[in-house]
Amino acid sequence: KGAVCVNKRKDWRKPLFNTTEDPGMAKASKVKRQRKKKTKENKTRTVHANLLYDNAKGEENPNRHYANNKIKTTKYTVLSFLPKNLFEQFHRFANVYFVFIALLNFVPVVNAFQPELALAPVVFILSVTAIKDLWEDYRRHRSDKEINHMDCLVYSRAERSYVEKYWKEVRVGDFIRLRCNEILPADVLLLSSSDPDRLCHIETATLDGETNLKQRQVVRSFFDLDCDFDPIKYNSIIECEKPNNDLNRFRGYIIHRSGRRDALYKENLLLRGCTIRNTEEAVGIVIYAGHETKAMLNNNGPRYKRSKLERQMNVDVFWCVIILLVMCLFAAVGHGLWMFQYGDKRPVFDVLSPDGTDLSPIMSAIYLFLTMIIVFQVLIPISLFVSIEIVKICQVYFIHQDMELYDEETDSHLQCRALNITEDLGQMQYIFSDKTGTLTENKMVFRRCTVAGVEYSHDANARRLAMYQEMDSEEEECTSHGGTLPRRDSVTSHQSARVVLRSQSTKSHRRTGSRAEAKRASILSKHTAFNITPDPQLLDKVNECSSQMDFMRFHSQPMSQLPSDLADVIDFFIALTICNTVVVSSPNQPRQKVQLTSTKSIQSNHLQVNKGSSSSLITNRSSNKGCSSMLSSPSAESTLTKLDEEQPPRDLEHNFGPVLPCYDGKAWNLEEGELRYEAESPDEAALVYAARAYKCSLVGRLPDQVTMELPHLGKLNFELLHTLGFDSTRKRMSVVVRHPLTDQITVYTKGADSVIMDLIKPPDTGKRQKKIVNRTQNYLNLYAADGLRTLCIAKKIMSKEQYACWLQHHLEAETAIQGREELLFESALRLETNLQLLGATGIEDRLQDGVPETIASLRKAGLQIWVLTGDKQETAVNIAYACKLLDPEEEILTLNADSQAFHSNFTTFEIYPSSSPSSSSSSHTPPFMVHRLGLVIDGRTLAYALDKSLEDKFLAVARSCRSVLCCRSTPLQKSMVVKLVRNKLKVMTLAIGDGANDVSMIQVADVGVGISGQEGMQAVMASDFALPRFRYLQKLLLVHGHWCYSRLANMILYFFYKNAMFVALIFWYQFYCGFSGSAMIDQWYLIFFNLMFSAFPQLITGTLDKDVSAETLQQLPQLYVNGQNSEEYKPYMFWMNMIDAFYQSLVCFFIPYFAYADSDVDLFTWGTPFTTLALFTILVHLGIETKTWTWMNWLSIAFSIALFFTVALCYNASCPTCYSPSNPYWTMQRLLQDPLFYLLCVITPVAALLPRYFYRACQGTLFPSPVQVGRQLDKLPAETCRNILSLSRVKVGSPLSPKPPFLSLAKPSPKGCNIKDQRSFPSSRASEVLYVLIPAETCFSAEMYL
Amino acid sequence: MATSYNAKEEDGHHSGASSHGAAGVVKSKKPDNTAFKQQRLPAWQPILTAGTVLPAFFVIGLIFIPIGIGLYVSSNNIKEFEIDYTGVDISNPCYSCAKNFSWNSTTPCVCSMNFTLEQPFESNVFMYYGLSNFYQNHRRYVKSRDDSQLNGDQSALKNPSKECEPYRTSDGLPIAPCGAIANSLFNDTLELYHIDSNNTRNTIPLVKKGIAWWTDKHVKFRNPGFIKLNKHLCTNKPVNWRKPVYELDPSDPDNNGFINEDFIVWMRTAALPTFRKLYRIIQKKSNTTPTLPSGKYVLEITYNYPVLSFDGRKRMILSTISWMGGKNPFLGIAYITVGSICFFLGVVLLIIHHKYDTRSNSADIPN
């Protein structure tokens, strides 16, 4: 049965307010509930209900042309496999080339080998690839089948009820019933929902990675229907768009029989792949099915990326072709001359062409040219591509298997989604990182707040968090205390007790090793972040305030008599609670229950729902009210009484909870403990949870009403008049509500401090307000300095007249046809003025584990790290300090431009770094200045900087800075920055991010990395590698990247060498056979030499060789420079290898040549030792290049040699008359009796490899590369090694020079031993902000943080 | 697509999770901690520096030089005599034969050459004929044969392989043996006489058996089974041949047809343009007398084979043989040279090691 109950972990992975890919558009379309213009007739799809046509099979059904819901993602069918696969394989040029050569063999004049034999390697290569493709396709087929056979309920006319059908049987126009936690089989138009508000919640994580619940609405015409939607009665026609891949758009209308038309929006459409949540049951009609669903249309195949190494290799393959052609040309000319010298006297050995005609020297030279191409084809390594693929697959396998890249908490490990760019990981130069969710955990924790100018530091909360962390790490070590509760005595409040309990359960679950349990446990542990210990002072105030209000309400006194500071407090919390888009849900929703019992029948499901919803408000209402009319809004009282009657499971609190800080004896706080909030951004949730800690809890949200509960006052229903959603230009959101107590129309606004502060009512209105603003601003600075994300809360009370006036404008804006968005924007601006500041909050976004260390180490590795974030500048800067991206000792250039005038100033700016020392304080010495700059640039400035005319200047500046921080950047800007750096600087770029806003950046970069632990499916889908945690990047790049790169680079070079060396043997022979294209090596050996005899050792070495151990690579990040500078495979190395290959082949040719000169040896008896010699030489050469010898290396080499002799002996004994023309019968056997053969086998490899061996030895001693030094360190005893490293780290890793001379490793200066503590506290720094204004008339300022 | 996969995957896990009490029911994705998967296989990690490598150089040098000396000495002990009878020079007795001869000549031309052996040849003497500038390794030439036919295959006899073109048929009949190699069979006859002190010519017995590989004679080459090769066979002789294949050796009926040893030897195409082929063996008669005592000899040549058209040379070679084959000092010299170079490089490395290689010692690194 389909994946019904997925206990999905809800993680907050979105940066504040940045919800969808295109937030502006998504919000705007939500705001405008306006009927769209009719789409053109020919561009629409008309959907009728299938029920009407049930009897008329096929022919008359108007839906018959639409794709059904069967999906088929396989590429091939049984019949089409061969032609299609071959066609695809021939897209690779090399394959065409090899087939061409093989076919050339069928031309009698030019053939060099037996045609059938020549086909063998090509066929082999093609079939290996084909089998791989076939297997992949089969896997796709299997999963397709599985998906196609998932069940769903489809209405059947015959049985007058919903029957279970497979997904693949669903057709457009079918009615489907969906139950909670079911996955949608197709794109469905929502016609009915069991939800009293005719809503349906869906989780779209699989589509866009957003884990918050989204609301979908029943089509308006079916809104008023009574409880049961009867498909039989449905007789409307739907017209909508043709299938498209825009997830955020759906337009159409429904035509009822009466002729009435109702518009359809994306809010009515449930997309395939989403999961129904919080809604017991929904019915809809299928609009798009199968491959026409938006999810499927969005599903693009994997991208093909070509790694840098591969690009470099292709250049050299091209050179090989040139060499090949030159050699062929040389041979052809030689042959022509050879022929020419005989003139008309035809020697007996110059055989006429088959038809007996005489060939002119020129013609034979031309034929020979083609023959030589065949003979020398081995020079272009046919097996290279296959070998590289095999090696990469093995590398991917090992990366997958690395325990250190495995995250136990989420039970996930690194995924390589792109199989062919592993070696790029070793060559990165620039890293572009997202901040939220990538560097930070994206678990927002409410830390402090200031209300009405008074700061509440929440010390207890901070202590609790610290303790929690400590405990977490402690228990990591000793996981054996299953049932005991450590540290209970130090617990200060009941929430803390729960924390302990939960973290305990986390651990015990973890120990069982069950993935699901661990996952659930991690949800619990995450929730501890939402259990906030209230500040006692503030809590008192809240209580005092609400009790006063209760009193006033009771005595019907006007609320305005409340002391203003208390009123501010209560308003502050009201704003926190309602000024958001948080959806309330309950963890005891059916999904968990269903999961446990996993019964299929609907009845039992119902049962579970009823049981499970006992403590859930929403479901409760729905199950109780059942069929009652929707429009009469439920009275809060009745719900409240119901709630009071219910007895939640209280065991936990009874057992462990200290005295509950209850004020009225009600158990409501326990009740709410079970409510869960689903927010678009984690900040919102953090604030709502914070408010709940002060007993101001959000209990329900409907489109037109928000219910919150206050101490003493009980439940209050706020009539929700408007919600002005967040957008990135306004940077704030507002709600307009009618206050139930005062009956005033109140606007609550929440937003970035920079914008809110400007909108505060001019301070002349009151001294108190002015004081509040000043104080709040101070605290805000303080929060920002602490790295907290700050938000300002403000409110505004509108008079009825004001509101009416605004409303009129707003309605006009809403109904406007043209420029509606601008008008709405202006309308929002009109509303959000003259605000009264209530307070501000500081939310902490904790850094992930090991981020500063990882950044430091990556930077030591010579990587430039840029952080591109959508966050605001202050927060970003502080996080940057916290994660050591910016160093307190370096100067920060801040670019904040207001206009394009910025342009003119870049020039000034360029001079700035060099002239700055005078303006900076003291401690720095000029030479270091260039490297000690950090650049902070905001989104608007970035937009100017990315302008064509300025990009070069911008890059020049950015390059001179050690780190770059771009704040407030849009997804597009992120990708533009990456693209700019990548294209202009010609560097290898890596982009890492977790959210949908990083997708474009991830796609643009050479290597895209997605953080998977936080559920950012979309980033992961776009990425090449998915990591559970940022810190794994260190090992991935420094160790695996290094290894993959050096392994592959060495293997490719070796391949070129090997083939050149082998082919050159035949080339030298041409001088002794009249350039006739003759080969002394048997054609079988010639063809299978690469494919079989010499294939395995290089694969083993290419897969397993480790030049430096993982530990040393991580301790000495400097070794990464090796890959960045492509040290292993530089262009000259190709030529050096070629020269070496030619030398070795000369030796290998002429030693046997002279040894057998003027003897009675025959062609193939003489040729067989060549194969043997070449094999030995090639293997020993590999041995010299191999750095680690495991038993697999030995085995593979032994296997290679054994294989060759076995094959040769069998082949030479198998058939006395076959294998024309060599006919090597008994050749090997005779050779093995010949002492000369053994003598040759000893001397030739030695003589051939002497220079290389000698060179390697000298190089290892005289000028060792850093990697070699690293290897030497590996060999040292662990302790000595550690000592050396600790010495060298100071010197080499000094941030002063990003790429220090490596030799300093060998001679670290003693003075480098005293490590300076570079940690400096941001708070102390913030007070020393210096503003240095460069030319006063310009519009940009450069700030310098010291 | 991924959407659905995902859901499915999770479903799988959760169905397992329902029995969460039992540990390890659901397989964790945690990788195994094995040496192989974690890439921690025990390994030998040689580091190539002067210090580590120099013993290898000395060892190679010390092994190679004695081997080289041994090879050189044993090669020098081999006695070899060579005489060119092509007849390029006017002084050469075969000059006239060479001048007037072509493939089409019908009458054999006989010439004889005198030579003197300075030293006696002790053991078995191998008599070779040598050709120079004869490209038996030419690609098209090498292919131009039909092994099935030579193996006595009836159908191949009647219908030779296409590879034999243009020497496949003549006058409508298949050629046996077909192909260019067979067609160009070396057909000089060499006879050797010793002139003793009395000036009498003593024929030196030349053994023509055992000059081909055993496997060739007995496995690869076979006459067509049931019929003795004879006239009744509807085949033609190769165009350059004087006599058909079944009359190659008039003296020994068992040495005729495809299994004629001279023919077999010829069919084993030489590797290089200058080559020799075993022609006869002069067997040692007794332990007391040398096989070929020093003195005067006459080589009588029935000059049939034209080589001048392609600047070829013909030689007759007499050679004894050692365990390592014929006389060839090269390998000995090569071993000595390589050994010496290794030794020299070893010394160079030793110097380098002493001067620079301080880093191999761990204590030195921090300095």
How would you describe this protein?
The complex is a heterodimer of chains A (1346) and B (367). With 1346 residues, chain A is of the alpha+beta class. Chain A contains 47 helices and 37 strands. The longest helix of chain A is centred in the C-terminal third of the chain and has 39 residues, at 1032-1070. Chain A is elongated. Chain A starts with 22 loop residues before the first helix and ends with a strand. Helix content of chain B is 29%, strand content 16%. In chain B, helix 2 runs antiparallel to helix 10. Chain B starts with a helix and ends in an 11-residue tail after the last helix. Classes of the chains: A alpha+beta (1346), B alpha+beta (367). At the A-B interface, helix 4, helix 9, strand 15, helix 11 and helix 12 of A face helix 1, helix 2, helix 4, helix 5 and helix 8 of B.
What form of chain B results from the Cα inertia axes? extended
Query: How much strand content do the residues of chain A show?
Result: 15-25%
Counted by DSSP, the helix tally of chain A is: 47
Alpha-beta content class of chain A = alpha+beta
What radius of gyration of chain A results from the CA coordinates?
37 Å
Q: Major β-sheet of chain A, in short? A: 11 strands, mixed
Going across the biggest sheet of chain B, name each strand in turn.
1-10-3-8
Largest interface: A-B, 135 and 124 residues
Mean pLDDT of chain B: 83
Spatially, the strands of the biggest sheet of chain A line up as: 16-35-34-33-17-29-32-31-30-37-36
Give the biggest sheet of chain B: 4 strands, antiparallel
Question: Radius of gyration of chain B, rounded?
Answer: 34 Å
Report the total helices of chain B: 10
* Low-pLDDT regions of chain B: 1-25, 359-367
Stretches of chain A where pLDDT is under 50 for at least 5 consecutive residues are 1-41, 472-528, 588-673, 907-930, 1289-1346
Question: What's the average pLDDT of chain A?
Answer: 73
Q: Assembly state here?
A: heterodimer
Helix percentage range of chain B: 25-40%
Please tell me what the overall shape of chain A is.
Answer: elongated
Region (Disordered) (chain A): 16-43, 472-520, 609-657
Organism (chain A): Dicentrarchus labrax
Subcellular location (chain A): Endoplasmic reticulum membrane; Membrane
Protein name (chain A): Phospholipid-transporting ATPase
